[in-house]
Amino acid sequence: MDQRVEALRTARNPLFNDRKLKLGTFCTNLSGGCTMSDIPGILQADWPSSLALAQLADAMEFEAIVPVGRWKGFGGSTDFNGAGFECFSWASAMAASTKHSGIFATSHVPTIHPLMAAKQATTIDHVSNGRFTLNVVTGWYQPEIEMFGAAMMEHDRRYDSAAEWLHVIKRLWTEDEPFDFDGEFYHLKQAVVRPKPIQKPHPAVMSAGASTKGRHFAAKYADVGFTNLDAHDLDSLRAKVDSFRELARKEYGREIQVWTNSYIFHGDTEADARRYYHHTVHERGDWEGVENLVSIMGINSQSIPAPALQNLKEHFIAGWVGFPLIGTSDQIVDGLQTLARAGFDGTLLSWPRYLEDMRRFQAETLPLVVQAGLR
Ligand SMILES: Cc1cc2nc3c(=O)[nH]c(=O)nc-3n(C[C@H](O)[C@H](O)[C@H](O)COP(=O)(O)O)c2cc1C
Question: Which of 48, 171, 218, 257 has the highest CB neighbour count under 10 A?
Fold first, then answer.
Protein backbone atom coordinates (compact mmCIF):
# COMPACT_ATOMS: atom_id res chain seq x y z
CA MET A 1 0.00 0.00 0.00
CA ASP A 2 1.44 3.36 -0.92
CA GLN A 3 2.08 6.04 1.66
CA ARG A 4 -0.76 8.25 0.57
CA VAL A 5 -3.40 5.56 1.00
CA GLU A 6 -1.89 4.72 4.38
CA ALA A 7 -2.18 8.36 5.44
CA LEU A 8 -5.77 8.55 4.24
CA ARG A 9 -6.65 5.35 6.08
CA THR A 10 -5.93 7.04 9.34
CA ALA A 11 -8.20 9.88 8.27
CA ARG A 12 -11.93 9.76 8.49
CA ASN A 13 -12.86 9.13 4.89
CA PRO A 14 -14.82 5.84 5.00
CA LEU A 15 -13.62 5.08 1.46
CA PHE A 16 -10.51 3.67 3.11
CA ASN A 17 -12.23 1.38 5.63
CA ASP A 18 -11.81 -2.40 5.58
CA ARG A 19 -15.28 -3.43 4.44
CA LYS A 20 -15.15 -6.12 1.80
CA LEU A 21 -17.66 -4.45 -0.51
CA LYS A 22 -18.21 -0.74 -0.10
CA LEU A 23 -21.56 0.72 -1.09
CA GLY A 24 -22.84 4.07 -2.24
CA THR A 25 -25.76 5.85 -3.81
CA PHE A 26 -25.59 7.30 -7.31
CA CYS A 27 -27.34 10.35 -8.75
CA THR A 28 -29.70 11.26 -5.90
CA ASN A 29 -29.35 14.96 -6.82
CA LEU A 30 -31.19 14.73 -10.16
CA SER A 31 -34.74 14.06 -11.34
CA GLY A 32 -35.12 10.42 -12.32
CA GLY A 33 -32.02 9.36 -10.41
CA CYS A 34 -30.57 6.64 -12.65
CA THR A 35 -33.89 5.41 -14.09
CA MET A 36 -35.38 6.76 -17.32
CA SER A 37 -39.02 6.00 -16.64
CA ASP A 38 -42.20 7.70 -15.51
CA ILE A 39 -43.39 5.10 -13.00
CA PRO A 40 -44.98 6.65 -9.89
CA GLY A 41 -42.38 7.12 -7.16
CA ILE A 42 -39.54 8.04 -9.53
CA LEU A 43 -37.12 10.47 -7.89
CA GLN A 44 -37.90 14.20 -8.02
CA ALA A 45 -35.22 16.85 -7.65
CA ASP A 46 -36.34 18.24 -4.31
CA TRP A 47 -34.43 18.76 -1.11
CA PRO A 48 -36.57 16.53 1.17
CA SER A 49 -35.98 13.55 -1.18
CA SER A 50 -32.23 14.23 -1.51
CA LEU A 51 -31.90 14.58 2.23
CA ALA A 52 -33.96 11.48 3.05
CA LEU A 53 -31.82 9.38 0.69
CA ALA A 54 -28.56 10.72 2.13
CA GLN A 55 -29.75 10.01 5.64
CA LEU A 56 -30.75 6.48 4.67
CA ALA A 57 -27.27 5.97 3.19
CA ASP A 58 -25.73 7.42 6.33
CA ALA A 59 -27.80 5.15 8.61
CA MET A 60 -26.47 2.15 6.61
CA GLU A 61 -22.94 3.62 6.76
CA PHE A 62 -22.59 3.64 2.99
CA GLU A 63 -19.12 4.77 1.99
CA ALA A 64 -20.22 7.02 -0.86
CA ILE A 65 -22.97 9.49 -1.70
CA VAL A 66 -22.17 10.43 -5.30
CA PRO A 67 -24.10 13.16 -7.14
CA VAL A 68 -23.96 13.48 -10.92
CA GLY A 69 -22.83 16.70 -12.56
CA ARG A 70 -25.60 17.47 -15.03
CA TRP A 71 -26.69 20.84 -16.40
CA LYS A 72 -29.32 19.86 -18.95
CA GLY A 73 -31.78 16.98 -19.42
CA PHE A 74 -32.16 14.58 -22.33
CA GLY A 75 -35.62 15.55 -23.61
CA GLY A 76 -37.99 12.68 -24.37
CA SER A 77 -41.11 12.08 -22.29
CA THR A 78 -39.41 12.63 -18.90
CA ASP A 79 -36.58 15.06 -19.70
CA PHE A 80 -34.43 12.64 -17.72
CA ASN A 81 -32.06 14.39 -15.26
CA GLY A 82 -33.39 17.76 -16.50
CA ALA A 83 -33.96 19.08 -12.98
CA GLY A 84 -31.22 18.80 -10.41
CA PHE A 85 -28.96 20.32 -7.83
CA GLU A 86 -25.43 21.63 -8.37
CA CYS A 87 -22.92 19.19 -6.91
CA PHE A 88 -20.65 21.24 -4.61
CA SER A 89 -23.38 23.22 -2.85
CA TRP A 90 -25.47 20.04 -2.57
CA ALA A 91 -22.50 18.08 -1.18
CA SER A 92 -21.79 20.73 1.43
CA ALA A 93 -25.36 20.49 2.71
CA MET A 94 -25.10 16.68 2.70
CA ALA A 95 -21.88 16.89 4.67
CA ALA A 96 -23.65 18.94 7.34
CA SER A 97 -26.61 16.52 7.42
CA THR A 98 -24.72 13.22 7.77
CA LYS A 99 -22.15 11.67 10.12
CA HIS A 100 -20.67 8.57 8.52
CA SER A 101 -20.92 8.42 4.74
CA GLY A 102 -18.32 9.63 2.30
CA ILE A 103 -19.53 12.77 0.52
CA PHE A 104 -18.63 13.34 -3.13
CA ALA A 105 -18.91 16.29 -5.48
CA THR A 106 -18.71 15.64 -9.18
CA SER A 107 -16.89 18.41 -10.95
CA HIS A 108 -16.93 19.09 -14.69
CA VAL A 109 -13.44 20.40 -15.33
CA PRO A 110 -14.35 23.05 -17.94
CA THR A 111 -17.10 24.57 -15.79
CA ILE A 112 -15.00 25.58 -12.81
CA HIS A 113 -11.66 27.24 -12.18
CA PRO A 114 -9.23 25.05 -10.19
CA LEU A 115 -8.86 27.67 -7.45
CA MET A 116 -12.61 27.67 -6.91
CA ALA A 117 -12.80 23.86 -7.00
CA ALA A 118 -9.91 23.56 -4.52
CA LYS A 119 -11.52 26.04 -2.14
CA GLN A 120 -15.01 24.51 -2.37
CA ALA A 121 -13.62 21.00 -1.88
CA THR A 122 -11.65 22.21 1.14
CA THR A 123 -14.77 23.75 2.58
CA ILE A 124 -16.72 20.51 2.22
CA ASP A 125 -13.81 18.53 3.66
CA HIS A 126 -14.08 20.71 6.77
CA VAL A 127 -17.89 20.56 6.96
CA SER A 128 -17.71 16.75 6.69
CA ASN A 129 -14.68 16.43 8.96
CA GLY A 130 -12.58 14.66 6.35
CA ARG A 131 -15.20 12.62 4.47
CA PHE A 132 -14.96 14.40 1.10
CA THR A 133 -13.98 12.95 -2.30
CA LEU A 134 -13.63 14.94 -5.53
CA ASN A 135 -15.05 13.13 -8.57
CA VAL A 136 -13.35 14.54 -11.68
CA VAL A 137 -15.25 14.39 -14.97
CA THR A 138 -14.26 16.03 -18.23
CA GLY A 139 -17.76 16.28 -19.74
CA TRP A 140 -19.18 14.58 -22.81
CA TYR A 141 -22.60 16.20 -23.25
CA GLN A 142 -21.93 19.01 -25.68
CA PRO A 143 -25.20 20.98 -25.23
CA GLU A 144 -24.55 21.38 -21.52
CA ILE A 145 -20.94 22.47 -21.97
CA GLU A 146 -22.13 24.96 -24.62
CA MET A 147 -24.43 26.49 -22.01
CA PHE A 148 -21.21 27.88 -20.52
CA GLY A 149 -20.45 29.66 -23.77
CA ALA A 150 -17.42 27.55 -24.62
CA ALA A 151 -16.86 24.98 -27.31
CA MET A 152 -16.13 21.47 -26.12
CA MET A 153 -12.50 20.43 -26.51
CA GLU A 154 -11.46 17.37 -28.48
CA HIS A 155 -11.75 14.22 -26.33
CA ASP A 156 -8.14 13.55 -25.34
CA ARG A 157 -7.38 17.27 -24.91
CA ARG A 158 -10.11 17.33 -22.25
CA TYR A 159 -8.05 14.89 -20.22
CA ASP A 160 -4.87 16.95 -20.76
CA SER A 161 -6.64 19.97 -19.33
CA ALA A 162 -8.06 17.84 -16.50
CA ALA A 163 -4.54 16.70 -15.59
CA GLU A 164 -3.35 20.29 -15.33
CA TRP A 165 -6.51 21.30 -13.44
CA LEU A 166 -6.03 18.53 -10.89
CA HIS A 167 -2.30 19.24 -10.59
CA VAL A 168 -3.08 22.85 -9.64
CA ILE A 169 -5.75 21.74 -7.16
CA LYS A 170 -3.39 19.30 -5.44
CA ARG A 171 -0.76 22.04 -5.12
CA LEU A 172 -3.35 24.40 -3.63
CA TRP A 173 -4.41 21.71 -1.17
CA THR A 174 -0.87 20.91 -0.04
CA GLU A 175 1.43 23.94 -0.46
CA ASP A 176 1.57 26.48 2.33
CA GLU A 177 3.06 29.36 0.36
CA PRO A 178 1.36 31.28 -2.49
CA PHE A 179 2.67 30.24 -5.93
CA ASP A 180 2.51 31.37 -9.55
CA PHE A 181 1.38 28.85 -12.14
CA ASP A 182 1.75 29.33 -15.85
CA GLY A 183 0.42 26.27 -17.64
CA GLU A 184 -1.07 25.47 -20.99
CA PHE A 185 -4.66 25.83 -19.78
CA TYR A 186 -4.49 27.71 -16.48
CA HIS A 187 -2.65 30.76 -15.18
CA LEU A 188 -2.63 31.65 -11.50
CA LYS A 189 -0.81 34.41 -9.69
CA GLN A 190 0.31 34.03 -6.07
CA ALA A 191 -2.43 31.46 -5.55
CA VAL A 192 -3.07 29.92 -2.15
CA VAL A 193 -5.84 28.09 -0.29
CA ARG A 194 -6.15 28.36 3.47
CA PRO A 195 -7.03 26.52 5.63
CA LYS A 196 -5.74 23.24 4.27
CA PRO A 197 -8.17 20.32 3.89
CA ILE A 198 -8.70 17.96 6.86
CA GLN A 199 -7.54 14.89 4.90
CA LYS A 200 -3.78 14.61 4.58
CA PRO A 201 -2.06 15.01 2.31
CA HIS A 202 -5.30 15.95 0.52
CA PRO A 203 -8.90 14.78 -0.12
CA ALA A 204 -9.49 11.58 -2.05
CA VAL A 205 -10.03 11.75 -5.82
CA MET A 206 -12.26 9.63 -8.04
CA SER A 207 -12.47 9.44 -11.82
CA ALA A 208 -14.78 7.51 -14.12
CA GLY A 209 -13.35 7.74 -17.61
CA ALA A 210 -14.06 4.77 -19.84
CA SER A 211 -11.81 5.52 -22.84
CA THR A 212 -8.13 4.53 -22.94
CA LYS A 213 -7.13 8.10 -22.08
CA GLY A 214 -9.77 8.21 -19.31
CA ARG A 215 -8.56 4.96 -17.77
CA HIS A 216 -4.97 6.18 -17.80
CA PHE A 217 -6.10 9.43 -16.14
CA ALA A 218 -7.78 7.49 -13.32
CA ALA A 219 -4.88 5.05 -12.98
CA LYS A 220 -2.38 7.90 -12.72
CA TYR A 221 -4.22 10.40 -10.53
CA ALA A 222 -7.27 8.93 -8.77
CA ASP A 223 -7.77 6.89 -5.61
CA VAL A 224 -10.93 5.34 -7.03
CA GLY A 225 -11.46 4.40 -10.66
CA PHE A 226 -14.80 3.38 -12.13
CA THR A 227 -15.20 0.81 -14.80
CA ASN A 228 -18.15 0.23 -17.09
CA LEU A 229 -19.26 -3.35 -17.74
CA ASP A 230 -19.93 -5.00 -21.06
CA ALA A 231 -20.52 -8.50 -19.63
CA HIS A 232 -21.78 -9.70 -16.27
CA ASP A 233 -20.26 -13.15 -15.72
CA LEU A 234 -17.63 -13.61 -13.04
CA ASP A 235 -14.69 -14.15 -15.42
CA SER A 236 -15.42 -11.03 -17.48
CA LEU A 237 -15.91 -8.95 -14.35
CA ARG A 238 -12.65 -10.22 -12.89
CA ALA A 239 -10.80 -9.46 -16.11
CA LYS A 240 -12.14 -5.87 -16.04
CA VAL A 241 -11.01 -5.29 -12.47
CA ASP A 242 -7.62 -6.94 -12.95
CA SER A 243 -6.81 -4.98 -16.09
CA PHE A 244 -7.59 -1.67 -14.37
CA ARG A 245 -5.51 -2.51 -11.30
CA GLU A 246 -2.66 -3.77 -13.46
CA LEU A 247 -2.70 -0.57 -15.50
CA ALA A 248 -2.30 1.50 -12.33
CA ARG A 249 0.39 -0.79 -10.90
CA LYS A 250 2.49 -1.36 -14.01
CA GLU A 251 2.29 2.05 -15.63
CA TYR A 252 2.18 4.28 -12.57
CA GLY A 253 3.23 2.17 -9.54
CA ARG A 254 -0.04 2.99 -7.82
CA GLU A 255 -2.80 1.09 -6.03
CA ILE A 256 -6.32 2.18 -6.91
CA GLN A 257 -9.75 1.04 -5.84
CA VAL A 258 -12.00 -0.22 -8.61
CA TRP A 259 -15.74 0.41 -8.44
CA THR A 260 -18.75 0.03 -10.68
CA ASN A 261 -22.43 0.95 -10.50
CA SER A 262 -25.42 -1.40 -10.07
CA TYR A 263 -29.19 -1.09 -10.22
CA ILE A 264 -31.65 -2.97 -8.03
CA PHE A 265 -35.13 -4.25 -8.87
CA HIS A 266 -36.35 -6.03 -5.76
CA GLY A 267 -39.33 -8.41 -5.58
CA ASP A 268 -40.84 -10.99 -3.22
CA THR A 269 -40.06 -13.52 -5.94
CA GLU A 270 -37.81 -13.35 -8.97
CA ALA A 271 -40.91 -13.21 -11.17
CA ASP A 272 -42.17 -10.17 -9.21
CA ALA A 273 -38.85 -8.41 -9.65
CA ARG A 274 -38.84 -9.17 -13.37
CA ARG A 275 -42.40 -7.83 -13.72
CA TYR A 276 -41.28 -4.65 -11.93
CA TYR A 277 -38.36 -4.36 -14.35
CA HIS A 278 -40.58 -4.99 -17.37
CA HIS A 279 -43.12 -2.40 -16.27
CA THR A 280 -40.45 0.23 -15.50
CA VAL A 281 -38.38 -0.30 -18.63
CA HIS A 282 -40.71 -1.59 -21.35
CA GLU A 283 -44.09 -0.15 -20.38
CA ARG A 284 -43.06 3.16 -18.79
CA GLY A 285 -39.49 3.68 -20.01
CA ASP A 286 -38.47 6.90 -21.75
CA TRP A 287 -37.42 5.38 -25.07
CA GLU A 288 -37.33 8.74 -26.80
CA GLY A 289 -35.03 10.11 -24.09
CA VAL A 290 -32.67 7.15 -24.34
CA GLU A 291 -32.54 7.56 -28.12
CA ASN A 292 -31.37 11.15 -27.56
CA LEU A 293 -28.85 9.98 -24.99
CA VAL A 294 -27.18 7.31 -27.10
CA SER A 295 -27.11 9.49 -30.19
CA ILE A 296 -25.42 12.31 -28.25
CA MET A 297 -22.89 9.72 -27.09
CA GLY A 298 -22.30 8.81 -30.73
CA ILE A 299 -23.61 5.26 -30.26
CA ASN A 300 -25.71 4.01 -33.17
CA SER A 301 -26.41 0.90 -35.21
CA GLN A 302 -23.34 1.68 -37.32
CA SER A 303 -21.06 1.50 -34.27
CA ILE A 304 -22.68 -1.57 -32.68
CA PRO A 305 -25.06 -4.29 -33.96
CA ALA A 306 -28.81 -3.54 -33.58
CA PRO A 307 -29.54 -6.18 -30.87
CA ALA A 308 -26.61 -4.93 -28.77
CA LEU A 309 -27.83 -1.35 -29.21
CA GLN A 310 -31.33 -2.34 -28.05
CA ASN A 311 -29.84 -4.10 -25.03
CA LEU A 312 -27.72 -1.07 -24.19
CA LYS A 313 -30.73 1.26 -24.32
CA GLU A 314 -32.66 -1.05 -22.03
CA HIS A 315 -29.76 -1.01 -19.59
CA PHE A 316 -29.57 2.78 -19.66
CA ILE A 317 -33.29 3.04 -18.89
CA ALA A 318 -33.06 0.52 -16.03
CA GLY A 319 -30.11 2.15 -14.26
CA TRP A 320 -27.43 3.95 -16.25
CA VAL A 321 -25.92 0.70 -17.61
CA GLY A 322 -25.17 -0.63 -14.15
CA PHE A 323 -24.69 -4.23 -13.03
CA PRO A 324 -28.22 -5.72 -12.86
CA LEU A 325 -29.38 -6.89 -9.42
CA ILE A 326 -32.88 -8.18 -10.15
CA GLY A 327 -34.70 -10.57 -7.83
CA THR A 328 -35.27 -11.42 -4.19
CA SER A 329 -33.06 -10.19 -1.35
CA ASP A 330 -31.06 -13.43 -1.57
CA GLN A 331 -30.50 -12.94 -5.28
CA ILE A 332 -29.43 -9.35 -4.75
CA VAL A 333 -26.90 -10.53 -2.16
CA ASP A 334 -25.66 -13.20 -4.60
CA GLY A 335 -25.08 -10.47 -7.18
CA LEU A 336 -23.16 -8.34 -4.71
CA GLN A 337 -21.10 -11.43 -3.79
CA THR A 338 -20.22 -11.85 -7.46
CA LEU A 339 -18.93 -8.27 -7.60
CA ALA A 340 -16.84 -8.80 -4.47
CA ARG A 341 -15.46 -12.10 -5.80
CA ALA A 342 -14.51 -10.39 -9.03
CA GLY A 343 -12.41 -8.02 -6.94
CA PHE A 344 -14.50 -4.84 -6.97
CA ASP A 345 -13.89 -2.63 -3.94
CA GLY A 346 -17.32 -1.11 -4.14
CA THR A 347 -20.43 -0.35 -6.11
CA LEU A 348 -22.81 2.57 -6.31
CA LEU A 349 -26.45 1.52 -6.12
CA SER A 350 -29.62 2.96 -7.59
CA TRP A 351 -33.28 2.02 -7.38
CA PRO A 352 -36.18 3.01 -9.67
CA ARG A 353 -38.49 4.19 -6.85
CA TYR A 354 -35.46 5.44 -4.95
CA LEU A 355 -37.02 6.27 -1.57
CA GLU A 356 -39.41 3.38 -1.22
CA ASP A 357 -37.01 0.78 -2.65
CA MET A 358 -34.00 1.96 -0.66
CA ARG A 359 -36.00 1.74 2.58
CA ARG A 360 -36.91 -1.80 1.65
CA PHE A 361 -33.24 -2.57 0.99
CA GLN A 362 -32.38 -1.29 4.46
CA ALA A 363 -35.06 -3.40 6.14
CA GLU A 364 -34.82 -6.63 4.17
CA THR A 365 -31.58 -6.92 2.22
CA LEU A 366 -28.89 -5.14 4.20
CA PRO A 367 -29.05 -7.63 7.12
CA LEU A 368 -28.35 -10.42 4.59
CA VAL A 369 -25.51 -8.44 3.05
CA VAL A 370 -23.95 -8.23 6.50
CA GLN A 371 -24.66 -11.91 7.22
CA ALA A 372 -22.90 -12.83 3.97
CA GLY A 373 -19.75 -11.13 5.31
CA LEU A 374 -19.74 -8.40 2.68
CA ARG A 375 -19.97 -5.61 5.28
C1 LIG B 1 -19.80 6.41 -11.74
C2 LIG B 1 -19.74 7.40 -12.86
C3 LIG B 1 -20.01 8.73 -12.61
C4 LIG B 1 -20.01 9.66 -13.64
N5 LIG B 1 -20.40 10.92 -13.38
C6 LIG B 1 -20.51 11.79 -14.40
C7 LIG B 1 -21.04 13.06 -14.17
O8 LIG B 1 -21.45 13.37 -13.05
N9 LIG B 1 -21.13 13.93 -15.20
C10 LIG B 1 -20.69 13.60 -16.45
O11 LIG B 1 -20.80 14.43 -17.35
N12 LIG B 1 -20.17 12.39 -16.70
C13 LIG B 1 -20.10 11.48 -15.71
N14 LIG B 1 -19.62 10.23 -15.96
C15 LIG B 1 -19.09 9.93 -17.31
C16 LIG B 1 -17.57 9.83 -17.28
O17 LIG B 1 -17.01 10.96 -16.70
C18 LIG B 1 -16.98 9.64 -18.68
O19 LIG B 1 -17.19 10.78 -19.48
C20 LIG B 1 -17.53 8.46 -19.40
O21 LIG B 1 -17.38 7.31 -18.59
C22 LIG B 1 -16.86 8.26 -20.77
O23 LIG B 1 -15.49 8.07 -20.62
P24 LIG B 1 -14.42 8.95 -21.41
O25 LIG B 1 -14.67 10.37 -21.01
O26 LIG B 1 -13.08 8.44 -20.94
O27 LIG B 1 -14.65 8.72 -22.86
C28 LIG B 1 -19.66 9.27 -14.96
C29 LIG B 1 -19.35 7.93 -15.21
C30 LIG B 1 -19.43 6.99 -14.19
C31 LIG B 1 -19.14 5.55 -14.50
Answer: 218
Cα(120) to ligand 1 centroid in Å equals 21
Q: Over the stretch 247-289, which tens digit does the pLDDT of each residue have?
A: 999 999 999 999 999 999 999 999 999 999 999 999 999 999 9
Ligand 1 centre to CA of 135 (Å) is 9
Q: Is residue 261 lining ligand 1, measured as CB closer than 6 Å?
A: yes
Q: Please count the structural domains in the chain.
A: 1
How many A from CA of 157 to the centre of ligand 1? 16
User: Do the strands 346-350 and 22-26 form a parallel or antiparallel pair, or are they unpaired?
Assistant: parallel
> Is the CB–ligand 1 distance for residue 159 below 6 Å?
no
**Whole-number Å distance between alpha carbons of 341 and 336:** 9
90 membership: H or E segment, kind and range: helix 87-97
N residues, the chain: 375
Output the pTM of the full model. Answer: 0.96
pLDDT tens profile 123-151: 999 999 999 999 999 999 999 999 999 88
CATH number, position 106: 3.20.20.30
Handedness of CA 319, 321, 327, 328 (dihedral sign): negative
65-99: pLDDT as tens digits: 999 999 999 999 999 999 999 999 999 999 999 99
Residue 272: domain span: 3-371
